[in-house]
C-alpha cells in the first residue's frame, strides 16, 4: 500500500456521524469559536474576492505559467501580504538564496511604502555589493535609496513571522518540508507554506521518472495542507511544448503529471496579456501592443470553493519586485491560440 493510501485510510478511520458534526458545530458557535477554514489574504484585488477572502487552510494552490511572467514575484508578494496582515509564512526556495529573497522583499516593501520611484531590486543589490562602502548598519547602507529605510522599519513588524528556507533539490524532500512546518506549528505558528518550485522537490527512488515524482510530490503537498490545516502554495513549471508564441497556457500545460490538475484546490495560470488577447485588439489599435505588454493575465483555472474560468489582470512592477496589487477583470477577448500571418 502506498504512503498516500495509508494516510487516506488513517483519515477514513476517524468516522463521525453527521449528527455528531452538527452537535459539535453548534457547540463551537455558541462558544464563540469558528467552524470554517482559516484564511490567509493574498492582498490582490479582485483575486481575494474570487477566492472567498484569500488562501484557505487545508487547500493546495498551484501557480503556473511561462518563464519570466512573475510566478515567484506574485507568490512572494502573497507571502509578504499575508504576514503583514498578521499571519505567518515559510518559503521553501529551491531557486534562490535567502539573501536574494531578502533583497526582493526590501524592494517590494519600499515600493509599497514609497510608491513609484522607490528603490529597485538592482539598486538594493548594488548597495549591498558595494565594496567601496565602509562599515555601518543596514539602514546606513540603504539610506540613499528612496523608501528603503522605511521598508526596513515596516518589515520589523512582521519579519520574525516570515521564514526563508534555502532548499536543496537533493535533500529537501517532502519529509523535510513536513518537519519544518511541524516545528513552526509546535512553536505556535500557523504558516502559509510556499514551495518554489514543485518539480524541484526530490523524491527518493523516482529521480528519473518525472511523472511519478511530480505525482508523489503534489499528493504529498495536498496531504500536508489537509493534515496541518494550512494553505500550501506551489509554483509549477510548464511543459516545453507550451512555451511557444501565441499559445495561451492552461492548467493541462503544467509539467509532469495529470495529478496536478486533480489534486489542486485552486489553480492560477499566468499569461502575458499581449500574447493572449484576440488579434483584432492589436490590428485596429497599434498602441495596444506596448500597453498590453505591461500586464499579466491571471486566470483562475480551477477553484473548488467558488467560480473558475475567471481572468484578471495585474500591472507588472518587476523592478520593484512586485505587481500592482489592485487589478481588474480582463475586458478584452482572450484566445486559445494566436494565428500569425506573414
Structure, explained:
This protein is of the alpha/beta class. The chain has a single domain, classed as 3-Layer(aba) Sandwich (Rossmann fold). Helix content is 38%, strand content 17%. It is built from 14 helices and twelve strands. The strands form two sheets. Strands 3, 4, 5, 6, 7, 8, 9, 10, 11 and 12 form a ten-stranded mixed β-sheet that branches. It starts with a helix and ends in a 13-residue tail after the last strand.
Attribute tags:
alpha/beta, 342 residues, disordered N terminus, globular, Rossmann fold, disordered C terminus
Summarize the structure.
This protein is α/β, with parallel strands linked by helices. The protein has helices at 3-12, 18-30, 47-50, 71-84, 98-114, 121-128, 138-142, 148-155, 174-186, 210-228, 259-263, 273-276, 280-283, 288-292; strands at 39-40, 55-56, 60-64, 88-93, 162-166, 191-196, 232-236, 266-272, 295-303, 310-317, 322-323, 328-329. The protein is globular.
SSE diagram, text form:
Elements: H1 3-12, H2 18-30, E1 39-40, H3 47-50, E2 55-56, E3 60-64, H4 71-84, E4 88-93, H5 98-114, H6 121-128, H7 138-142, H8 148-155, E5 162-166, H9 174-186, E6 191-196, H10 210-228, E7 232-236, H11 259-263, E8 266-272, H12 273-276, H13 280-283, H14 288-292, E9 295-303, E10 310-317, E11 322-323, E12 328-329
Parallel strand pairs: 3-7, 3-8, 4-5, 4-6, 6-7
Antiparallel strand pairs: 1-2, 8-9, 9-10, 10-11, 10-12
Count of helical segments? 14
Overall radius of gyration: 21 Å
Structural class: alpha/beta
Summed up, the domain count is 1
SSE run: HHEHEEHEHHHHEHEHEHEHHHEEEE
Helical content (DSSP H or I, runs of 4+)? 25-40%
Amino acid at each position: 500500500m502506498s504512503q498516500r493510501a495509508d494516510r487516506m485510510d488513517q483519515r477514513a478511520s476517524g468516522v463521525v456521524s453527521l449528527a455528531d458534526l452538527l452537535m459539535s458545530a453548534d457547540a463551537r458557535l455558541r462558544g464563540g469559536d469558528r467552524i470554517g477554514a482559516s484564511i490567509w489574504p493574498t492582498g490582490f484585488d479582485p483575486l481575494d474576492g474570487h477566492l472567498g477572502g484569500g488562501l484557505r487552510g487545508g487547500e493546495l494552490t498551484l501557480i503556473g505559467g511561462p518563464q519570466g511572467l512573475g510566478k515567484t514575484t506574485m507568490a512572494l508578494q502573497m507571502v509578504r501580504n499575508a504576514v503583514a496582515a498578521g499571519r505567518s509564512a515559510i518559503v521553501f526556495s529551491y531557486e534562490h538564496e535567502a539573501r536574494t529573497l531578502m533583497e526582493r522583499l526590501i524592494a517590494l516593501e519600499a515600493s509599497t511604502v514609497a510608491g513609484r520611484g522607490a528603490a529597485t531590486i538592482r539598486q538594493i543589490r548594488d548597495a549591498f555589493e558595494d565594496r567601496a562602502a565602509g562599515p555601518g548598519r543596514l539602514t546606513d547602507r540603504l539610506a540613499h535609496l528612496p523608501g528603503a529605510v522605511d521598508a526596513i522599519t515596516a518589515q520589523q513588524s512582521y519579519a520574525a513571522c516570515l521564514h526563508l528556507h534555502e532548499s536543496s533539490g537533493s535533500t529537501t524532500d517532502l519529509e523535510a518540508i513536513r518537519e519544518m512546518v511541524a516545528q513552526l506549528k509546535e512553536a505556535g505558528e500557523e504558516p502559509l507554506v510556499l514551495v518554489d518550485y514543485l518539480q524541484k522537490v526530490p523524491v527518493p527512488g523516482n529521480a528519473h521518472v518525472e511523472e511519478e515524482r511530480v505525482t508523489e510530490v503534489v499528493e504529498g503537498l495536498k496531504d500536508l495542507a489537509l493534515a496541518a490545516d494550512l494553505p500550501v502554495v506551489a509554483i509549477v513549471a510548464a511543459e516545453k511544448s507550451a512555451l511557444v508564441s501565441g499559445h495561451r497556457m492552461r492548467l493541462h500545460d503544467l509539467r509532469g503529471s495529470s495529478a496536478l490538475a486533480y489534486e489542486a484546490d485552486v489553480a492560477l495560470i499566468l499569461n502575458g496579456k499581449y500574447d493572449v488577447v484576440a488579434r483584432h485588439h492589436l490590428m485596429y489599435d497599434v498602441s495596444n501592443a506596448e500597453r498590453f505588454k505591461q500586464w499579466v493575465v491571471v486566470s483562475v483555472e480551477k477553484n473548488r470553493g467558488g467560480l473558475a474560468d475567471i481572468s484578471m489582470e495585474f500591472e507588472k512592477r518587476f523592478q520593484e519586485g512586485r505587481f500592482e496589487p489592485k487589478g481588474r477583470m480582463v475586458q478584452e477577448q482572450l484566445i486559445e491560440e494566436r494565428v500569425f500571418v506573414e
